[in-house]
Structure prediction request, 443 residues.
Amino acid sequence: MLRHVLPGWDDLAAQLALPDPEVLEHTRRHGPTNAQATLRLFGQDEAHVRVVLYRDHHAWCPYCQKIWLWLEERRIPYRIRKVTMFCYGQKEPWYTRLVPGGMLPALELDGRLITESDRIIEALEAAFGPLGPLGLVDPAVLSLRQLERLLFRAWCQWLCTPRLGAAAEDQCRDQFRRLAAATEAALDQTPGSFFLGPELAGIDLVFVPYLERMGASLAYYKGYALRREHPLLHRWFCALEQRPTYLGTQSDFHTHAHDLPPQMGGCYASGTAQQGQWAYRIDQGPWDAPWPGEPPQDAVDPETSAQPQADPARQALARVLRHAPTLLGRMVAATGVPPDAVDGALRSALAQLIAGPAPAAAPGPPPGTAPALRYLRDRISVPRDMDLHAARALRTALEATARRDPAAPMVPGPVLPLQHRRDQDPAPFVKAATNRSATNRAA
Ligand SMILES: N[C@@H](CCC(=O)N[C@@H](CS)C(=O)NCC(=O)O)C(=O)O
Prediction:
Protein backbone atom coordinates (compact mmCIF):
# COMPACT_ATOMS: atom_id res chain seq x y z
CA MET A 1 0.00 0.00 0.00
CA LEU A 2 2.79 2.40 0.94
CA ARG A 3 4.28 1.90 -2.51
CA HIS A 4 1.44 3.50 -4.46
CA VAL A 5 -0.19 6.14 -2.28
CA LEU A 6 1.27 8.55 0.17
CA PRO A 7 0.43 7.08 3.59
CA GLY A 8 -1.62 9.09 6.06
CA TRP A 9 -0.40 9.64 9.63
CA ASP A 10 -2.64 6.79 10.82
CA ASP A 11 -1.15 4.46 8.22
CA LEU A 12 2.30 5.32 9.50
CA ALA A 13 1.30 4.80 13.13
CA ALA A 14 -0.10 1.41 12.12
CA GLN A 15 3.44 0.39 11.14
CA LEU A 16 4.35 0.43 14.82
CA ALA A 17 3.19 -1.90 17.54
CA LEU A 18 3.02 1.04 19.95
CA PRO A 19 3.14 -0.11 23.56
CA ASP A 20 0.58 1.01 26.05
CA PRO A 21 1.77 4.34 27.63
CA GLU A 22 2.11 2.63 31.01
CA VAL A 23 4.33 -0.10 29.55
CA LEU A 24 6.41 2.56 27.82
CA GLU A 25 6.86 4.48 31.07
CA HIS A 26 7.76 1.26 32.92
CA THR A 27 10.47 0.51 30.34
CA ARG A 28 11.82 4.04 30.62
CA ARG A 29 12.07 3.69 34.39
CA HIS A 30 13.35 0.14 34.66
CA GLY A 31 14.68 -0.79 31.21
CA PRO A 32 17.90 0.13 29.39
CA THR A 33 19.49 3.55 29.76
CA ASN A 34 17.56 6.12 27.74
CA ALA A 35 17.53 9.88 27.28
CA GLN A 36 13.77 10.22 27.72
CA ALA A 37 13.34 8.99 31.32
CA THR A 38 12.65 11.41 34.14
CA LEU A 39 12.77 8.69 36.80
CA ARG A 40 15.08 5.68 36.91
CA LEU A 41 14.31 2.92 39.38
CA PHE A 42 16.19 -0.24 38.24
CA GLY A 43 13.48 -2.51 39.62
CA GLN A 44 13.27 -0.67 42.94
CA ASP A 45 10.46 1.26 44.51
CA GLU A 46 10.16 5.05 44.08
CA ALA A 47 10.47 5.40 47.87
CA HIS A 48 14.16 4.43 47.50
CA VAL A 49 15.01 7.53 45.46
CA ARG A 50 17.63 9.62 47.30
CA VAL A 51 19.09 11.39 44.27
CA VAL A 52 17.88 14.09 41.87
CA LEU A 53 20.09 14.74 38.82
CA TYR A 54 19.73 18.10 37.07
CA ARG A 55 20.97 17.67 33.53
CA ASP A 56 20.39 19.28 30.15
CA HIS A 57 17.29 18.66 27.99
CA HIS A 58 19.61 18.07 25.11
CA ALA A 59 21.36 15.08 26.70
CA TRP A 60 24.53 16.71 25.40
CA CYS A 61 26.38 18.29 28.36
CA PRO A 62 29.64 16.35 28.81
CA TYR A 63 29.84 16.86 32.58
CA CYS A 64 26.24 15.64 32.95
CA GLN A 65 27.07 12.53 30.89
CA LYS A 66 29.67 11.49 33.49
CA ILE A 67 27.15 11.61 36.34
CA TRP A 68 24.38 10.08 34.24
CA LEU A 69 26.61 7.12 33.38
CA TRP A 70 27.81 6.71 36.96
CA LEU A 71 24.23 6.47 38.29
CA GLU A 72 23.25 4.07 35.50
CA GLU A 73 26.28 1.83 36.05
CA ARG A 74 25.76 1.72 39.83
CA ARG A 75 21.98 1.34 39.34
CA ILE A 76 21.18 4.00 41.93
CA PRO A 77 17.51 5.04 41.71
CA TYR A 78 17.26 8.71 40.75
CA ARG A 79 14.97 11.40 39.46
CA ILE A 80 15.95 13.57 36.48
CA ARG A 81 15.07 17.22 36.08
CA LYS A 82 15.96 18.62 32.69
CA VAL A 83 17.24 22.15 32.24
CA THR A 84 17.87 24.22 29.10
CA MET A 85 21.48 25.15 28.39
CA PHE A 86 22.06 28.83 27.52
CA CYS A 87 22.93 28.23 23.89
CA TYR A 88 19.70 26.30 23.17
CA GLY A 89 17.18 28.67 24.75
CA GLN A 90 15.92 30.29 27.93
CA LYS A 91 17.24 28.85 31.20
CA GLU A 92 14.36 27.89 33.51
CA PRO A 93 14.03 30.48 36.34
CA TRP A 94 13.37 27.73 38.92
CA TYR A 95 16.83 26.38 38.12
CA THR A 96 18.69 29.69 38.45
CA ARG A 97 16.99 30.15 41.81
CA LEU A 98 18.47 26.78 42.82
CA VAL A 99 21.89 27.19 41.13
CA PRO A 100 22.48 30.93 40.58
CA GLY A 101 25.02 30.62 37.72
CA GLY A 102 22.73 28.13 35.97
CA MET A 103 25.59 25.65 35.48
CA LEU A 104 24.98 21.96 34.94
CA PRO A 105 25.15 19.33 36.25
CA ALA A 106 23.83 19.64 39.79
CA LEU A 107 22.70 16.84 42.03
CA GLU A 108 20.66 16.55 45.20
CA LEU A 109 21.65 13.74 47.51
CA ASP A 110 19.31 13.30 50.48
CA GLY A 111 18.25 16.93 49.96
CA ARG A 112 21.84 18.31 49.84
CA LEU A 113 22.66 20.22 46.64
CA ILE A 114 26.07 19.52 45.06
CA THR A 115 27.57 21.12 41.94
CA GLU A 116 30.80 20.42 39.98
CA SER A 117 30.80 17.02 38.35
CA ASP A 118 33.90 15.63 40.09
CA ARG A 119 32.60 16.77 43.52
CA ILE A 120 29.29 15.10 42.65
CA ILE A 121 30.98 11.78 41.86
CA GLU A 122 33.05 12.00 45.02
CA ALA A 123 29.85 12.56 47.06
CA LEU A 124 28.14 9.65 45.31
CA GLU A 125 31.15 7.42 45.98
CA ALA A 126 31.05 8.40 49.67
CA ALA A 127 27.34 7.56 49.87
CA PHE A 128 27.16 4.42 47.71
CA GLY A 129 30.76 3.20 47.28
CA PRO A 130 32.97 3.58 44.21
CA LEU A 131 32.26 2.26 40.76
CA GLY A 132 34.98 -0.31 40.05
CA PRO A 133 38.03 -1.06 42.17
CA LEU A 134 39.08 2.53 43.05
CA GLY A 135 37.27 5.80 43.58
CA LEU A 136 38.19 9.15 42.04
CA VAL A 137 40.02 10.40 45.16
CA ASP A 138 42.33 7.39 45.32
CA PRO A 139 45.94 8.65 44.85
CA ALA A 140 46.46 6.04 42.10
CA VAL A 141 43.64 7.65 40.10
CA LEU A 142 44.67 11.29 40.51
CA SER A 143 47.40 11.11 37.87
CA LEU A 144 44.89 9.70 35.39
CA ARG A 145 42.55 12.60 36.13
CA GLN A 146 45.42 14.99 35.41
CA LEU A 147 46.16 13.17 32.16
CA GLU A 148 42.54 13.59 31.09
CA ARG A 149 42.82 17.37 31.61
CA LEU A 150 46.09 17.54 29.65
CA LEU A 151 44.51 15.65 26.75
CA PHE A 152 41.50 17.97 26.96
CA ARG A 153 43.75 21.04 26.73
CA ALA A 154 45.68 19.68 23.75
CA TRP A 155 42.38 18.95 21.99
CA CYS A 156 41.03 22.47 22.68
CA GLN A 157 44.22 24.06 21.43
CA TRP A 158 44.10 22.12 18.17
CA LEU A 159 40.36 22.36 17.56
CA CYS A 160 39.55 25.86 18.82
CA THR A 161 42.47 28.06 17.72
CA PRO A 162 41.50 30.01 14.60
CA ARG A 163 43.79 30.26 11.55
CA LEU A 164 46.51 27.95 12.82
CA GLY A 165 48.36 27.64 9.51
CA ALA A 166 49.99 24.44 8.30
CA ALA A 167 52.98 24.40 10.68
CA ALA A 168 50.93 25.13 13.80
CA GLU A 169 48.29 22.59 12.70
CA ASP A 170 51.06 19.97 12.61
CA GLN A 171 52.40 21.04 16.00
CA CYS A 172 48.98 20.92 17.63
CA ARG A 173 48.20 17.56 16.03
CA ASP A 174 51.52 16.15 17.26
CA GLN A 175 50.94 17.41 20.80
CA PHE A 176 47.47 15.86 20.79
CA ARG A 177 48.88 12.62 19.36
CA ARG A 178 51.51 12.46 22.15
CA LEU A 179 48.90 12.84 24.87
CA ALA A 180 46.54 10.35 23.21
CA ALA A 181 49.51 7.92 23.10
CA ALA A 182 50.14 8.59 26.81
CA THR A 183 46.49 7.74 27.44
CA GLU A 184 46.96 4.50 25.53
CA ALA A 185 50.08 3.78 27.62
CA ALA A 186 47.97 4.24 30.77
CA LEU A 187 45.39 1.82 29.38
CA ASP A 188 48.19 -0.65 28.64
CA GLN A 189 49.35 -0.69 32.29
CA THR A 190 46.60 -3.07 33.34
CA PRO A 191 45.09 -6.20 31.80
CA GLY A 192 41.66 -5.67 30.23
CA SER A 193 40.26 -2.81 28.20
CA PHE A 194 39.60 -0.21 30.91
CA PHE A 195 41.92 2.09 32.86
CA LEU A 196 41.99 0.02 36.05
CA GLY A 197 41.68 -3.42 34.43
CA PRO A 198 38.83 -5.50 33.06
CA GLU A 199 36.24 -3.73 35.24
CA LEU A 200 34.78 -0.33 34.29
CA ALA A 201 35.63 2.28 36.95
CA GLY A 202 34.78 5.88 37.80
CA ILE A 203 37.96 7.06 36.06
CA ASP A 204 36.75 5.56 32.77
CA LEU A 205 33.65 7.73 33.07
CA VAL A 206 35.85 10.79 33.58
CA PHE A 207 37.41 10.10 30.17
CA VAL A 208 34.16 9.19 28.36
CA PRO A 209 32.60 12.59 27.53
CA TYR A 210 35.62 14.24 25.99
CA LEU A 211 37.10 11.19 24.27
CA GLU A 212 33.71 10.81 22.60
CA ARG A 213 33.70 14.50 21.60
CA MET A 214 37.34 14.30 20.46
CA GLY A 215 36.56 11.36 18.15
CA ALA A 216 33.67 13.25 16.56
CA SER A 217 35.17 16.72 16.29
CA LEU A 218 38.62 15.62 15.11
CA ALA A 219 36.99 13.51 12.38
CA TYR A 220 34.86 16.46 11.24
CA TYR A 221 37.24 19.39 11.63
CA LYS A 222 40.64 17.72 11.17
CA GLY A 223 40.00 14.45 9.28
CA TYR A 224 41.76 12.67 12.18
CA ALA A 225 40.51 9.12 12.78
CA LEU A 226 41.00 8.83 16.55
CA ARG A 227 40.09 5.17 16.76
CA ARG A 228 42.24 4.14 13.81
CA GLU A 229 45.24 6.18 15.00
CA HIS A 230 45.00 4.89 18.58
CA PRO A 231 44.12 1.18 18.73
CA LEU A 232 43.98 1.02 22.53
CA LEU A 233 41.48 3.87 22.57
CA HIS A 234 39.52 1.94 19.96
CA ARG A 235 39.60 -1.16 22.21
CA TRP A 236 38.41 0.97 25.16
CA PHE A 237 35.52 2.39 23.07
CA CYS A 238 34.60 -1.12 21.87
CA ALA A 239 34.44 -2.33 25.50
CA LEU A 240 32.21 0.63 26.39
CA GLU A 241 30.01 -0.10 23.39
CA GLN A 242 29.26 -3.53 24.86
CA ARG A 243 27.40 -1.76 27.67
CA PRO A 244 23.75 -0.68 27.33
CA THR A 245 24.49 2.13 29.80
CA TYR A 246 27.00 3.73 27.46
CA LEU A 247 24.89 3.09 24.36
CA GLY A 248 22.02 4.97 26.00
CA THR A 249 24.16 8.09 26.45
CA GLN A 250 26.34 7.83 23.30
CA SER A 251 26.02 10.63 20.77
CA ASP A 252 27.15 10.64 17.13
CA PHE A 253 29.60 12.60 14.99
CA HIS A 254 26.96 14.84 13.41
CA THR A 255 25.44 15.93 16.72
CA HIS A 256 28.81 16.68 18.31
CA ALA A 257 30.28 18.37 15.24
CA HIS A 258 27.47 20.92 15.22
CA ASP A 259 26.86 21.31 18.94
CA LEU A 260 30.48 21.95 19.85
CA PRO A 261 31.15 25.30 18.07
CA PRO A 262 28.88 27.48 20.24
CA GLN A 263 29.95 25.61 23.39
CA MET A 264 33.67 25.90 22.64
CA GLY A 265 33.63 29.39 21.12
CA GLY A 266 34.41 28.03 17.63
CA CYS A 267 35.90 24.91 16.03
CA TYR A 268 38.24 25.31 13.07
CA ALA A 269 38.69 22.98 10.11
CA SER A 270 42.19 22.07 8.92
CA GLY A 271 41.08 22.12 5.27
CA THR A 272 42.93 18.94 4.26
CA ALA A 273 41.44 16.65 1.61
CA GLN A 274 40.65 13.95 4.19
CA GLN A 275 39.02 16.54 6.46
CA GLY A 276 36.82 17.79 3.62
CA GLN A 277 35.76 14.26 2.68
CA TRP A 278 34.92 13.29 6.25
CA ALA A 279 32.99 16.49 6.99
CA TYR A 280 31.02 15.95 3.78
CA ARG A 281 30.29 12.33 4.74
CA ILE A 282 29.10 13.36 8.23
CA ASP A 283 26.83 16.08 6.83
CA GLN A 284 25.64 14.66 3.53
CA GLY A 285 26.04 10.89 3.87
CA PRO A 286 25.78 8.27 2.61
CA TRP A 287 25.52 7.33 6.28
CA ASP A 288 25.51 3.58 5.79
CA ALA A 289 28.42 3.30 3.36
CA PRO A 290 32.13 2.80 4.22
CA TRP A 291 33.96 5.97 5.19
CA PRO A 292 36.03 7.78 2.53
CA GLY A 293 39.57 6.47 2.49
CA GLU A 294 38.66 3.38 4.57
CA PRO A 295 39.38 0.05 2.91
CA PRO A 296 35.92 -1.54 2.56
CA GLN A 297 37.11 -4.86 3.95
CA ASP A 298 38.19 -4.83 7.64
CA ALA A 299 37.00 -1.19 7.80
CA VAL A 300 36.64 0.20 11.31
CA ASP A 301 33.50 2.28 11.62
CA PRO A 302 35.09 5.36 13.21
CA GLU A 303 31.83 6.25 14.93
CA THR A 304 30.90 3.05 16.75
CA SER A 305 31.42 -0.69 16.98
CA ALA A 306 27.86 -1.16 18.26
CA GLN A 307 25.50 -3.05 16.03
CA PRO A 308 21.95 -1.69 15.60
CA GLN A 309 19.94 -2.61 18.70
CA ALA A 310 16.41 -3.32 17.54
CA ASP A 311 14.73 -2.09 14.37
CA PRO A 312 16.37 1.35 13.89
CA ALA A 313 13.85 2.50 11.27
CA ARG A 314 10.89 1.80 13.54
CA GLN A 315 12.66 3.43 16.47
CA ALA A 316 13.11 6.56 14.33
CA LEU A 317 9.51 6.42 13.11
CA ALA A 318 8.17 6.18 16.67
CA ARG A 319 10.23 9.18 17.76
CA VAL A 320 9.13 11.31 14.79
CA LEU A 321 5.46 10.38 15.21
CA ARG A 322 5.60 11.34 18.89
CA HIS A 323 6.69 14.87 18.00
CA ALA A 324 5.28 15.21 14.47
CA PRO A 325 3.11 18.34 15.00
CA THR A 326 5.96 20.25 16.66
CA LEU A 327 8.49 19.06 14.07
CA LEU A 328 6.22 20.07 11.19
CA GLY A 329 5.77 23.51 12.78
CA ARG A 330 9.55 23.91 13.01
CA MET A 331 10.12 22.79 9.42
CA VAL A 332 7.54 25.27 8.14
CA ALA A 333 8.76 28.17 10.28
CA ALA A 334 12.41 27.62 9.35
CA THR A 335 11.97 27.22 5.60
CA GLY A 336 8.76 29.02 4.62
CA VAL A 337 7.58 25.92 2.73
CA PRO A 338 3.75 25.69 2.99
CA PRO A 339 2.44 23.42 5.77
CA ASP A 340 0.53 21.01 3.47
CA ALA A 341 3.61 20.43 1.36
CA VAL A 342 5.83 19.85 4.41
CA ASP A 343 3.26 17.44 5.81
CA GLY A 344 3.26 15.40 2.58
CA ALA A 345 7.05 15.50 2.32
CA LEU A 346 7.52 14.14 5.83
CA ARG A 347 5.00 11.35 5.22
CA SER A 348 6.84 10.45 2.02
CA ALA A 349 10.16 10.33 3.90
CA LEU A 350 8.69 8.17 6.67
CA ALA A 351 7.28 5.71 4.13
CA GLN A 352 10.77 5.57 2.63
CA LEU A 353 12.23 5.02 6.11
CA ILE A 354 10.02 1.98 6.71
CA ALA A 355 10.63 0.57 3.24
CA GLY A 356 14.40 0.72 3.82
CA PRO A 357 16.92 1.39 1.09
CA ALA A 358 14.54 0.37 -1.74
CA PRO A 359 14.38 3.36 -4.09
CA ALA A 360 11.11 5.19 -4.63
CA ALA A 361 9.21 3.28 -1.96
CA ALA A 362 6.31 5.73 -1.90
CA PRO A 363 5.13 8.67 -3.98
CA GLY A 364 7.80 11.36 -3.86
CA PRO A 365 7.53 14.61 -1.91
CA PRO A 366 5.63 17.68 -3.12
CA PRO A 367 7.75 20.12 -5.16
CA GLY A 368 9.92 22.59 -3.29
CA THR A 369 10.11 20.60 -0.04
CA ALA A 370 13.77 19.48 -0.17
CA PRO A 371 14.96 22.27 2.18
CA ALA A 372 12.34 21.34 4.80
CA LEU A 373 13.41 17.68 4.66
CA ARG A 374 17.06 18.70 4.97
CA TYR A 375 16.20 21.02 7.85
CA LEU A 376 15.04 17.99 9.82
CA ARG A 377 17.88 15.77 8.54
CA ASP A 378 20.38 18.21 10.04
CA ARG A 379 18.65 18.54 13.39
CA ILE A 380 18.35 14.95 14.58
CA SER A 381 20.08 14.94 17.92
CA VAL A 382 21.64 11.74 19.29
CA PRO A 383 20.93 10.38 21.93
CA ARG A 384 18.23 12.93 22.81
CA ASP A 385 15.94 11.90 19.95
CA MET A 386 17.04 8.39 19.07
CA ASP A 387 20.15 6.23 18.93
CA LEU A 388 22.95 6.54 16.41
CA HIS A 389 21.71 3.80 14.07
CA ALA A 390 18.13 5.10 14.07
CA ALA A 391 19.49 8.57 13.26
CA ARG A 392 21.46 7.15 10.33
CA ALA A 393 18.32 5.46 8.98
CA LEU A 394 16.22 8.62 9.33
CA ARG A 395 18.85 10.89 7.76
CA THR A 396 19.16 8.43 4.87
CA ALA A 397 15.39 8.43 4.26
CA LEU A 398 15.08 12.22 4.53
CA GLU A 399 17.94 12.77 2.09
CA ALA A 400 16.69 10.12 -0.38
CA THR A 401 13.26 11.79 -0.32
CA ALA A 402 14.68 15.30 -0.72
CA ARG A 403 16.50 14.10 -3.85
CA ARG A 404 13.12 13.17 -5.33
CA ASP A 405 11.81 16.72 -5.00
CA PRO A 406 10.44 17.26 -8.53
CA ALA A 407 11.17 20.99 -8.50
CA ALA A 408 14.62 21.56 -6.93
CA PRO A 409 16.09 18.39 -5.45
CA MET A 410 19.45 19.80 -4.43
CA VAL A 411 18.40 22.93 -2.53
CA PRO A 412 20.08 22.78 0.91
CA GLY A 413 18.30 23.28 4.21
CA PRO A 414 18.83 26.37 6.40
CA VAL A 415 22.43 26.71 7.56
CA LEU A 416 23.20 25.46 11.06
CA PRO A 417 24.07 28.40 13.33
CA LEU A 418 27.57 28.56 14.82
CA GLN A 419 27.07 31.05 17.67
CA HIS A 420 24.09 29.36 19.34
CA ARG A 421 21.71 26.46 18.77
CA ARG A 422 18.40 28.12 19.46
CA ASP A 423 17.10 26.23 16.43
CA GLN A 424 17.18 23.33 18.94
CA ASP A 425 15.19 25.13 21.67
CA PRO A 426 13.42 22.41 23.64
CA ALA A 427 10.59 24.72 24.81
CA PRO A 428 7.94 23.82 22.15
CA PHE A 429 8.59 20.10 22.63
CA VAL A 430 8.32 20.41 26.41
CA LYS A 431 5.08 22.40 26.03
CA ALA A 432 3.58 19.81 23.66
CA ALA A 433 4.55 16.96 26.02
CA THR A 434 3.01 18.80 28.99
CA ASN A 435 -0.23 19.34 27.04
CA ARG A 436 -0.25 15.67 26.03
CA SER A 437 0.07 14.44 29.58
CA ALA A 438 -2.62 16.88 30.76
CA THR A 439 -4.95 15.47 28.07
CA ASN A 440 -4.09 11.88 29.07
CA ARG A 441 -4.78 12.65 32.74
CA ALA A 442 -8.13 14.25 31.84
CA ALA A 443 -9.10 11.24 29.67
N1 LIG B 1 33.48 22.31 36.15
C1 LIG B 1 32.07 22.09 35.89
C2 LIG B 1 31.80 22.46 34.47
C3 LIG B 1 30.34 22.38 34.12
C4 LIG B 1 30.01 23.09 32.83
O1 LIG B 1 30.88 23.69 32.18
N2 LIG B 1 28.74 23.03 32.46
C5 LIG B 1 28.27 23.71 31.29
C6 LIG B 1 27.68 22.73 30.30
S1 LIG B 1 28.85 21.67 29.58
C7 LIG B 1 27.10 24.59 31.66
O2 LIG B 1 26.29 24.24 32.48
N3 LIG B 1 27.01 25.77 31.07
C8 LIG B 1 25.84 26.60 31.23
C9 LIG B 1 24.87 26.40 30.11
O3 LIG B 1 25.32 26.05 29.01
O4 LIG B 1 23.69 26.59 30.30
C10 LIG B 1 31.73 20.63 36.19
O5 LIG B 1 32.63 19.79 36.13
O6 LIG B 1 30.57 20.35 36.53
Q: What stands out?
A: Residues 165-188 form the longest helix (24 residues). The chain has a mean pLDDT of 94. Strands lie at 39-40, 51-56, 78-83, 106-109, 112-115.
